[in-house]
Amino acid sequence: MEVEVDDEAIFEFQALPPELRLEVFGKLKNPLDLKSCWNTCSSWNEALDERKKEFLLPKILPNIHSYLSRTDLRNCRKVCKVWKEGIDIFLQTSNSRTFFSSICSLEEFEKFMARLGSHNGNPFPSRKLMFGKFVRDSFLVEDENLEADNLYGGFPLLARKFGEHVSHLIYCLNSECQGSAEQIQAIPTYFRDLKELMFVEGLGGYAETEYIHTIKDIIENFPSEGLRMENLSSFKCFLHNGAPILKAIANQYGHQLERLHCFGNCVTQDFFLDYETRLTNLKILKIWRCSFSIFSSNYFVLSVLPLRVLKLEFTDDSLEIRQVVQLVNMLPGSIINLNLRVQCRSGIRELNNGFRELDPRPHLKVLTISSSFLEEPAWLYQIITRLGSVRHFRLNCPSYLVNFERDFNIRYVEEVIRMLYEHSPALQSVIFQKPRLPKDFLYDSLEKIHTIKRKKKRVPVLVSNAM
């Protein structure tokens, strides 16, 4: 479970009496070293006896946290019970933190609820709740003794007590949890002010059919008053079974949706054509893994044309270059933000020739290209010269660049920047994501590029290692 809780009660380490500071930290070889924490748990327990535990932990932990990462704290939490309890207290009461808990029984769940209820005011000031077990989620404290049935059995208790405070709900479907489908039915009853609802799957497999039908029923029976879903997303569990969910969403809340995220396999040929009149306010459309073995690119584009989409994110792993160009040329003219993530199988000659067929798009302001076929920057020339209205250009560099020599990486990026400067008169910013370039490249090579810049202005260039 993940609950965001805010509290202004942050204590200064210096406020502790010197004798208590010495008693606690004197037991540790180095309080800022995770290994010391692991190796001195018995000493830590001795220092934190029952009469001092309640006073010390909320005051000491924030100071250790400023030096240790949250992952370190969570790992340390498993080592000794006192430390575990202290981490629970700190993560629950610290400012703008996220509280993570693995519930082992309904009794422990009720204790957790009592701690939430002890807060003054709304225990969910961010109004967000993530519920479920993400086995592969590194941010969740794992517990080998976690009983999934009990965890999900406590959901109605949480919903009844705090559902009215939650407007953003992320529910993790877990195919190993008996009775999860029944527990989901508490959502429309107790979460009356939802603005965002997302179902994800926590075990990497596909959700069972009963969950799909249950979610479909929930969507169709949500009270229309008091529920305004701005971002109703379908994620992994809908990879193969999501078409009924999307249709239920469009039928019930299509006129309210501004953002829709879905897997391409969920989008049937008639989805957008049948529901274009209902998706009247859609502005952001993200389609992942949209395989054209299911329906042609022409049909897809014709389906999207009636929509007033401003931002389109599209991924596919089987497109030929001619299909990419055809897709871009046929997209609605209203799109100002285009994110293409494609894995083209075409050679460099086909790339260069294919992109010559791109039509100008005067309204396109933001272009993101992410692919593994960027063998040479030459093909980018065809895109840049034909999409000169782009103001912000982002390029996700291919992973193979990491294996090349440093000089090759620098030449690659320099060439792309030169083309952007020379052929994109409206350009305002350039971002390279994950190019694995040395920091001195920014100071040396970019300064050299700036010497051949346009006379009127300098275009900022950012090299980012984040996606």
TrEMBL record:
It comes from the Eukaryota. InterPro entries: F-box-like_dom_sf, F-box_dom, LRR_dom_sf. SUPFAM superfamilies: F-box domain (SSF81383), RNI-like (SSF52047). It holds the Pfam family F-box. Residues 16-56, 57-94 form the F-box domain. This is F-box domain-containing protein.
